[in-house]
Amino acid sequence: MSFFKPQAQTTKAPLKHVVDPELQPWVEKYRPKTIDDVSAQEHTVAVLRKTLTSTNLPHMLFYGPPGTGKTSTILALSRQLFGPENFRNRVLELNASDERGISIVREKIKNFARQTPRAQTISSDGKEYPCPPYKIVILDEADSMTQDAQGALRRIMETYARITRFCLVCNYVTRIIEPLASRCSKFRFTSLDNQSSSNRLMHIATSEHITVDPSVVEALIRASSGDLRRAITYLQSASRLSSSTSPPTPITPRDVQEIAGVVPDDIINNFATVLGIDIDQAMTGTAPKPGFTGIISAVKEIIREGYSASQVLSQLHDLVVLHPTLNAKQKSQCGLVFAEADKALCDGADEELWILEVGLRVNKAVS
């Protein structure tokens, strides 16, 4: 016989997970909320804006370089179609680089695609959303899916097209099998132009109360090569580095280059001057000693600093190709040298020897 009175069980509502905006990565914090916030993809945004009024969405294939807004665009469109409440049960987002086998297609995707959409939930924010009678499956990094998985996905797209629409997101459209690509409307995302990237970075810096010079923004754009996501990450890292001291130190282009793993401009310019390429010495300081001895000394200095040979040669290549006074023959001879060095480095060749080899042959080509 028990002398303890049983206590009534109480069920607690699950706590809603809330992320402190101060702890969020800026990439997520400033991700576009609507398709109108997407930068520099005017054609795609114009077409998708019409789907908001007609709510007749086809299967879609977004492709283009990383960091150009592909995933952000389809997520923003989905939120504008369904609203925050219906978004959770109407949208399935999978990263195909992790879940790329045929079993995922047959189980997870098929089970979601075959379910009839739930009834529309009234939005708590008071806004009205189109909420069309279908669901959306977003497959990020779809070019990582196996051939078998893509083949299985083709049949599912056909069978459940009435209640489920698919959006494939990838970097390389050639890795999507043709029968799958032909069932989708293709949208090509281009690398962001410098002005669009600059405007977005300045907007983030202003919102975060950070003072950045135009030279810092230019360094961010050059270091990220048109990848806005990477540029925003570099800006956040530079901001944290700046605020780690008291008082905070100003962010400089050199800080951005160090964070990005890019060789500083003055080192590349000094190396180019040693090779006989005319560089404005007002930027680089004292002119280094040219010739064979100078080249060996410069290469040893680069290796001693620990810079990547591939990064050094990549930046030197860009400097040579865009140089205003070198003629076409000199640039083509240098280009062949860079190509040979790149192949050798990919095969595991010695970095110091190949930087020296490139230096000597570029010096011979421009002399």
Automatic annotation (TrEMBL):
One of its GO terms (biological process) is DNA repair. Keywords: ATP-binding, DNA replication, DNA-binding, Hydrolase, Nucleotide-binding, Nucleus. It holds the Pfam family RCF1-5-like_lid. The lineage of its organism: Eukaryota, Fungi, Dikarya, Basidiomycota, Agaricomycotina. It comes from Armillaria gallica. One of its GO terms (molecular function) is DNA binding. Transmembrane segments: none annotated. InterPro entries: AAA+_ATPase (IPR003593), ATPase_AAA_core (IPR003959), DNA_pol3_clamp-load_cplx_C (IPR008921), DNA_Rep/Repair_Clamp_Loader (IPR050238), P-loop_NTPase (IPR027417), Rep_factorC_C (IPR013748), RFC_lid (IPR047854). Belongs to the activator 1 small subunits family. One of its GO terms (cellular component) is nucleus. Residues 56-193 form the AAA+ ATPase domain. It is found in: Nucleus. This is Replication factor C subunit 2.
